[in-house]
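--- STAGE predict ---
source: upstream dedup step, 1 unique chain passed
mode: sequence only
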Amino acid sequence: MIDFEVQKFTRRCAQTDRELKPGEVFYSVLMSDGADVVRRDFSADAWEGPSEDAIGWWKSAVPDPRVNRMQWAPHDVMLHFFEQLQSNPDQQDVVYVLALLLIRRRVFKLEATEAGDGLNEILQIYCPRNEKEYQVQVVTPAVEEIDRIQQQLAEMLFGANEDID
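--- STAGE serialize ---
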């Protein structure tokens, strides 16, 4: 498999140089340019289909930054939710996923990983925000539980923001 970085959406039509407006349908195509892969965006009016040397293409719509933009809950809310869940043994898969999310958001720092009882690994996590250390058991969610965990975290950690200026 070949890895390459795809350029961000330009918000301009490559054919006409016209700005693409929120809600407008557009097409993007990836093409080889020597050793590089380049992205070109086209308005629906200027789109004539992908060229024969296209690596890939897709159809999309320009997002409207003021409509139902999802926002993360504040870090303190996420941390409070984590601490509540940590005391519930039935929620350890959610605790693990949330811990990974908080590490990614740089609320937590992963200090170490060590073997726990039996085959389970334990994450040693530090939170500079409240100067606490946590131990989180590595519990990879079962496939049938993934949707439930995503839904639970979405309900607790996201909110729609319709008033973005």
